[in-house]
Recover the amino acids of this structure.
């Protein structure tokens, strides 16, 4: 791997965040501050998760899939939902519509996640001589993560910020949010429980994220119609 | 307008999903770096002339023998299995000094002393002989060549065989590994080899004192049994020399063990002193033997009745050779030959006499006994070789391994030597007495022979790379102490005919690297992806008109200025 390859993988990992910001109306409504605040909330949430993982989870010698430990990990993963709730409801925003607010929060959230989880391995990998597809797959995973984060933010916006949503859609909204929130546990199960290889897991993540994005978009569109 | 947009969006979604799955299907995870033990071709100077591999560090792409005839190999490492080696290719590249990035020869596992399989089998596999001959010839060529690039030996295993298969596939399809096409890169991180200054040599001497009668005022005569223990080969880390001269060492130790039993009892102690010598510097005109003999005081030297040197007695079948420098008509030579011949005849094989005159002005010392003969001591060499090897040949190189040594031959050699010495010592000429008969207390111990042969077959023994207190030398000393009295180490340095360099073994890292072309294509794909993503996001959030308007602003500005 060369610096050129590192550059390529960095583009794949962080480029979509910049493209999303500049392509959508976010750049016109001065939502950068909101994204930064959401990123800070993400870092705080990650710290809390780290402390909880260290406190309640025991380190397993074997790499096998332990259902109880994974369930505990999923519960701790819901701290992300709490953090997202805080970011969506408690942060002060001046003159930003709900439509753009959830996108800014989701974007900041996903960017912070990519920086925290992928920048260091990418940087270390650039010094190695061995070529491997892992870093390209990590970049693709970052794309899937961006889509999932914005989907979760959209669903969260529907759950906590929109008051007059149709009653028949409420279970679907909560079910979709639950699926998106447990996606890390699902991928962990696929990887360690079923023994899937990294390319297959990344493919599944991309497919699932696009499906959930489509569903979230449809739900958001339907909920917007009565106000029009 | 309204009903068209959802269809366009769904089509975009489908195409993105299809692209993602195509990309995922193309992904093929490859293994990480492979690490292989490699053993470096020896580097040495002879009278200032450089020989062997003159570089140690390696950092080049790899290729196989299936490279294009017009390919430039100056920055390429050739990975050549011994099984596919074409000797004319090697000769051509070496004789014409064609540039190479490096050479790595893959040896079959039968040449590895770490190979545990078939250790007990002494059968001559039919596929062994051709490979042995090829390796022998290759070793001669490499030892006498000056190669300005790194040359290494490695053993076949699953990892490197898989790498070789990949490299061959790439070469056949006309995709040799270069900086622009990717492929496998071989890396050996090594420092510049340094000269070995004053390489130490150590001779080990053991003594069994004979029975002295009170009325005899003279010094007892002495018989010397000598074997050289160090080796020389194309790869110093692989030069175990099972036959040359591991077999000689084993035979000497067993003879010492047998005679220590006889000499421990005053009733069976002979009236000859026995001097056992394990000498160093054998490949270099028996330099260690020369120094050892010069350290003798005159009385000891004059008391030597004769010396018998053991050299390569581990893979013969029907006949052995006694090499002498004095004329066969000499009374002492005749007696030695008669002793050995009669015992051999009883044991069912033949011992031939071979006379080779010493040319004093020639520095070449072909046999160990010649060092004794130059000092006017009667001496002979017992060997399975009928002719003297050339300098630095048959010195325990790559082909001389455990698989090619027959311990039964060593057992018979020990019996011959011990019985002949006993007849000389106890004066049993003409009588059909076997002191070392099978199934007796004094029988040759095959287990002893086998275990020591196994130890020697796992110990590379090129003299300059031994330390002064090498554990192997200490082990030989201790073993000799168990059987003889007055064990001494005689230390000296090798004379300056040959200068050696270090760095004999290291690790080879094999990386599979991507090409610059691949990364350029990847950059193109990523750029396209981001452009498509940008367009998709603009269309879905602002509408198609906004996307078009991004490219229409410049004409409108022109209109304004006009």
């Amino acid at each position: 791997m060369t610096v050129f390859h590192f550059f390529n993988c960095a583009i794949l990992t962080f480029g979509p965040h910049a493209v999303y910001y500049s392509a959508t109306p976010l750049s016109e409504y001065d939502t950068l501050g909101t994204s930064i605040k959401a990123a800070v909330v993400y870092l705080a949430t990650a710290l809390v998760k780290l402390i909880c993982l260290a406190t309640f989870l025991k380190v397993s010698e074997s790499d096998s899939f332990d259902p109880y430990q994974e369930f505990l990990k999923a519960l701790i993963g819901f701290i992300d939902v709490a953090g997202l709730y805080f970011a969506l409801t408690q942060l002060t925003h001046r003159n930003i519509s709900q439509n753009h607010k959830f996108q800014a929060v989701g974007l900041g959230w996903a960017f912070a996640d990519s920086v925290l989880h992928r920048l260091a391995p990418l940087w270390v990998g650039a010094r190695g001589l061995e070529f491997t597809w892992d870093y390209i797959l990590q970049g693709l995973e970052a794309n899937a993560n961006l889509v999932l984060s914005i989907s979760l933010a959209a669903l969260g916006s529907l759950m906590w910020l929109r008051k007059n949503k149709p009653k028949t859609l409420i279970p679907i909204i909560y079910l979709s949010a639950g699926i998106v929130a447990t996606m890390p546990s699902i991928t962990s199960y696929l990887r360690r429980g079923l023994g899937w290889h990294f390319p297959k897991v990344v493919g599944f993540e991309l497919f699932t994220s696009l499906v959930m994005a489509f569903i979230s978009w449809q739900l958001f569109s339907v909920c917007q119609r009565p106000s029009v | 307008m309204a009903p068209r947009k959802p269809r366009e969006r769904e089509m975009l979604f489908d195409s993105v999903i299809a692209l993602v799955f195509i990309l995922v299907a193309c992904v093929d995870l490859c293994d990480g770096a492979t690490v292989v033990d490699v053993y470096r071709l020896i580097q040495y100077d002879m009278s200032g002339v450089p020989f062997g591999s003159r570089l140690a560090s390696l950092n080049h792409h790899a290729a196989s023998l299936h490279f294009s005839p017009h390919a430039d190999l100056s920055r390429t490492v050739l990975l050549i299995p011994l099984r596919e080696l074409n000797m004319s290719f090697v000769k051509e590249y070496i004789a014409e000094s064609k540039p190479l990035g490096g050479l790595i020869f893959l040896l079959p596992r039968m040449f590895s002393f770490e190979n545990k399989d078939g250790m007990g089998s002494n059968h001559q596999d039919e596929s062994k002989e051709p490979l042995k001959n090829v390796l022998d010839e290759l070793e001669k060529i490499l030892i006498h060549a000056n190669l300005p690039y790194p040359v290494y030996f490695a053993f076949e295993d699953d990892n490197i065989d898989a790498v070789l298969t990949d490299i061959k596939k790439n070469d056949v399809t006309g995709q040799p590994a270069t900086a622009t096409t990717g492929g496998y890169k071989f890396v050996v991180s090594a420092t510049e080899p340094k000269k070995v200054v004053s390489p130490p040599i150590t001779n080990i001497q053991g003594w069994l004192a004979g029975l002295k009668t009170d009325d005899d005022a003279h010094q007892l005569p002495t018989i010397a049994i000598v074997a050289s223990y160090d080796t020389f080969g194309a790869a110093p880390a692989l030069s175990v020399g099972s036959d040359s001269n591991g077999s000689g060492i084993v035979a000497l130790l067993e003879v010492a063990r047998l005679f220590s039993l006889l000499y421990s009892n005053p009733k069976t102690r002979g009236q000859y002193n026995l001097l056992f010598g394990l000498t160093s510097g054998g490949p270099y005109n028996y330099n260690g033997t020369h120094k050892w003999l010069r350290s003798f005081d005159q009385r000891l030297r004059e008391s030597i009745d004769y010396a018998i040197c053991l050299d390569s007695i581990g893979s013969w079948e029907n006949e052995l050779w006694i090499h002498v420098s004095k004329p066969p008509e000499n009374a002492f030579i005749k007696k030695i030959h008669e002793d050995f011949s009669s015992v051999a005849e009883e044991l069912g094989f033949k011992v031939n006499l071979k006379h080779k005159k010493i040319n004093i002005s020639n520095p070449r010392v072909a046999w160990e006994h010649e060092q004794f003969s130059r000092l006017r001591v009667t001496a002979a060499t017992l060997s399975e070789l009928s002719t003297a090897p050339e300098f630095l040949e048959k010195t325990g190189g790559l082909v001389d391994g455990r698989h090619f040594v027959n311990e039964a031959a060593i057992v018979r050699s020990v019996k011959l030597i011990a019985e002949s010495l006993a007849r000389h010592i106890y004066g049993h000429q003409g009588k059909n007495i076997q002191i070392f008969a099978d199934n007796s207390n004094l029988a040759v111990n095959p287990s002893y022979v086998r275990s020591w042969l196994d130890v020697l077959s796992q110990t590379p023994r090129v003299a300059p790379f031994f330390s002064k207190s090498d554990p192997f030398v200490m082990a030989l000393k201790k073993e000799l102490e168990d059987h003889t009295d007055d064990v001494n180490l005689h230390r000296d340095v090798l004379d300056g005919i040959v200068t050696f360099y270090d760095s004999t073994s290291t690790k080879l890292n094999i990386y599979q690297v991507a090409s610059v072309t691949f990364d350029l294509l990847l950059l193109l794909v990523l750029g396209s992806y981001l452009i498509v993503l940008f367009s998709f996001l603009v269309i879905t959030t602002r509408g198609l008109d906004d996307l078009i308007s991004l490219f229409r602003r410049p004409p409108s500005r022109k209109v304004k200025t006009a």
Notes: Chain A is about 75% helix and 0% strand.
